[in-house]
Amino acid sequence: MQTNKQNIGTLLKELRTKNGITKYYAEKNGLQQATLNSIENGDKAYTIDSLLKYLDVCKIQIEEFSLKKIVIYLENTKESFTFTASNPQD
Asked: What values do phi and psi take at 31, rounded to 5?
C-alpha cells in the first residue's frame, strides 16, 4: 500500500508524462534528477521551492495540482489523507 506522499508523487508523475515531459528534459531545464525522483517516489520531504520548480519545469499548472484533485485522486486510490495544522508557538 502506498503512502500519501507516494500517491501524490504518482499523481505528479502522471501529470508530467501527460505533458510529454521526460526526466531528461526536466534535468536539462534545471530540475535535479534526485529532486524529481524524491517528489515522484514520495521518498522524503521536499521543500515548497522544490515542488514549485517541479511544477514549472514539468509544465504543470497549479490548478492541475489543486487540493481538490489531490483529494479525488486519493479517494480513487482508497487512501485516506489528513491535514494537520501546526501551531508555530508550540
From this structure: -100, 115
What is the Cα–Cα distance from 66 to 34, expressed in whole angstroms?
24
Q: Which of 49, 66, 67, 46 is nearest to 57 (CA)?
A: 49
Model's pTM, two decimal places? 0.68
Q: What is the four-CA torsion angle of 77, 48, 27, 25, rounded to 10 degrees?
A: 60
Q: How far apart are CA 34 and CA 23, in angstroms?
A: 11
Digit-coded pLDDT (tens) for 9-67: 888 898 899 999 999 999 999 999 998 998 899 887 778 888 889 999 999 887 777 76
CA distance 13 to 23: 10
